[in-house]
Amino acid sequence: MVPPEPESQVAKTLPDAWDHTGQPANRSTTGGWTSAAMILGVEACERLTTLGIAVNLVTYLTGTMHLGNAHAANDVTNFMGTSFMLCLLGGFVADTFLGRYLTITIFTVVQAAGVTILTISTAIPSLQPPKCTQTGSSSCIPATDIQLTVLYLALYLTALGTGGLKSSVSGFGSDQFDESHKAEKAQMTAFFSWFFFFISIGSLAAVTVLVYIQDNLGRRWGYGIVASSIGVGLVVFLSGTRWYRFKKLAGSPLTQIASVFVAAWRKRHLELPLDPSALFDVQIGEDDGKVKQKLPHSKQFRFLDKGAIKDSENSSEVLKLNKWILSTSTDVEEVKMVITMVPIWATTIMFWTIYAQMTTFSVSQATTMDRHIGKSFLIPAASLTVFFVGSILLTVPVYDRVIIPLAKRFLKHPQGLSPLQRIGIGLVLSTLAMVSAALTEIKRLRVAQSHGVVDDPSKVVPLSVFWLAPQFFFVGSGEAFTYIGQLDFFLRECPKGMKTMSTGMFLSTLSLGFFFSSLLVTIVHKVTGDRDPWLADNLNQGKLYNFYWLLTVLSVLNFGLYLIGARWYVYREHRLSEKSVELEQE
User: Fold this and answer.
1) How far apart are CA 87 and CA 107, in angstroms?
2) Mean pLDDT across the stretch 118-128?
3) Which candidate, 177, 184, 203, 556, has a CA 20 to 30 Å from the CA of 436?
4) Is residue 119 within 8 Å of residue 227, measured between CB atoms?
5) Which residues on neighbouring strands pair with residue 461, listed in sequence order?
6) Distance CA 499, CA 575 (A)
7) Between residues 505 and 454, which one has the greater pLDDT?
8) Secondary structure string (H, E, C) spanning 341-395
9) Separation between Cα atoms, residue 202 and residue 46, nearest integer Å
10) DSSP 81-149
């Protein structure tokens, strides 16, 4: 029998991936679409869970738990903000300790536990306050501390599970394809398209079917379905174990950033050498087996260069082993690259603050308006977000088929629009959404006054809920531009050695956007008080339009800062080409 040629043997296994037994992964029996499909199912369940809870949570908090509008809005945004912020924790745990497979498994169980407790809390009457005895909020007894404790335990266990799951599922999916293989690299591109598709499918199911079940059959049925779907998704995910490809732990980029700053601070009193080549560096691939692109020295943030000064007090062997004492020049330059992205990162937070209003006050507006289609069918208030999801699904193909060809023709850019231009369009659309929301709220209040329903929040304002559609449409279209633009920007601009940082930077803007919304609501509610409230428990007696105008002004100011940051920023490809360094293919 003729032994196989070395090339064919190499082609059968992957050098950087292993199967579930710890052996080099076989290309024909592991990875690919078989394993990726099972991972996509988990993501669909995650989106169904997160959005299925978030979009309709404000109505549960105000209608069942008897919390005020401002309090309820903050609870929703804090829940969402925590979910996205915990993605950073999940990513750190996956990269440093557990790996993506175990992280997904463990945090899916945590998420299932949170939703199960939430289901129980909605099914047991003693975990909810008694129903209002009369019309009007003054007769409603708010939830007790014990009832809220159980509710918050359920929500934040769910948030913890969501953070760990979301941080790893897309990365583990991409691990199933080999970027060095031409056919599999094309499949990986298709995987991300299907990944976004499954996110959209989960979102549509959440804002239509799930919300309808919650409002008409009961929360316990809606949340029970979610808990069951998580269980099914976990079983499907675990059943694919034998087909998955596993990658070596890469280590967290947060550790690299921290070590560079610590090393620079330790040597803050030392003088920088005049010749940058005197700074410590290693050969490509020598650093812990990681393949990194050696980067040229830059003159920005020169304080960090002190982290790469070789200190004569320590031996070279000790220094090489301890990055908290001595960083490589390449590590320092990678951290500098991340710092240059901070202005763009900071000015995209405002978009997600506006996004947060679509799941809070916009839903509260919808509850007061005429939601009938025909004479019998009543649209659930939270299902108005279907316009939001629909506009995303409409904008993506329009962008690909119409905007990109036109932009290529007139702007002469190979991608049509650059990532920063896409983000800019999204910020403009979000500002228009707040203008539309303010004008619609003014009209809603005028109709309420003219029909004498201002003092009775139980009465329906005779104005079609479809007046709210433009604000959902603008934010949804804005997300299609901003979401894709941010992902493209962070993935492209993060150094090759810190690629996992790109997801963390993106998700942290979502988290901080929700938290900033909570902060604004708290400040506005405290400043305007009970005498002339903007965010009244009875929206008909408030001035919600002023809050929307405030967000409009903040958005305009933020957009001005964004333009300054975008003009200052130099793309990594251009920065390296100026120093005659070829950008490695990734």
Assistant:
1) 11
2) 92
3) 203
4) yes
5) 369
6) 18
7) 454
8) CHHHHHHCHHHHHHHHHCCCHHHHHHHHEECEECCCEECCHHHHHHHHHHHHHHH
9) 8
10) HHHHHHHHHHHHHIIIII-HHHHHHHHHHHHHHHHHHHHHHHH-GGGSPPPPSSSSGGGPPPPPHHHHH
**What is the spatial distance between Cα 541 and Cα 545, in angstroms, rounded to a whole number?**
12
Q: Which residues pair with 372 in a beta bridge?
A: 378
Token readout for 397 is 């193909």
Q: Rounded to 5 degrees, what angle do the CA atoms 20, 22, 25 make?
A: 75
d(CA 164, CA 586): 26
Q: Which two tokens mark 438?
A: 């303010």
Nearest in space to 198 (alpha carbons), one of 229, 238, 222, 220: 229
Whose tokens are 């298709």? That residue is 190
Structure tokens that stand for 113 in this block: 């536990």
Closest CA to 202 of 172, 169, 174, 175: 169
Distance CA 224, CA 213 (A): 11
Q: How far is residue 430's CA from residue 475's CA, in Å, rounded to a whole number?
A: 5
DSSP readout, 245-313? -B------HHHHHHHHHHHHHHTTTSPPPSSGGGS----TTTSTT---------STTGGGGGGGPPPTT
Helix (H, G, I), strand (E, B) or coil at 25: strand
Confidence class for position 487, pLDDT limits 50, 70, 90: confident
Tokens 């003009």 map to which residue? 567
Are the C-beta atoms of residues 348 and 482 closer than 8 Å to each other? yes
Residue 62 tokens, joined: 């105000």
State the pLDDT at residue 320: 55
Non-local (6+) Cβ contacts of 16 within 8 A are: 247, 248
Please tell me the distance from the alpha carbon of residue 548 to that of residue 78, in angstroms, as a whole number.
19
Please, are residues 496 and 585 in contact by the beta-carbon 8 Å criterion?
A: no
Nearest CA among 117, 122, 105, 225 for reference residue 165: 105
Placement of tokens 């008409």 in the chain? 216
At 431, list the tokens. Answer: 């500002």
Angle between helix 500-528 and helix 544-568 axes, rounded to 10 deg: 140
In DSSP notation, 446-484 reads HHHHHTT-TT-TTSPEEEEGGGGHHHHHHHHHHHHHHHH
- 345-389 pLDDT, tens digit each: 999 999 999 999 988 899 889 989 998 888 778 888 888 888 877
pLDDT tens, residue by residue, 188-243: 766 766 777 777 778 888 888 888 898 888 899 999 998 998 998 899 999 988 89
Query: How many other C-beta atoms lie within 10 A of the C-beta of residue 253?
Result: 24
Partners of 18 in beta bridges:
24, 246
Q: 95 is written with which tokens?
A: 């990269």
Residue whose pair of structure tokens reads 């990734």 in the numeric block: 586
**142-167 tens-digit pLDDT:** 889 999 999 999 999 999 999 888 88
**Tokens 């404000």 identify what position?**
58
CB–CB of 523/74 below 8 Å? no
43: number of Cβ within 10 Å? 24
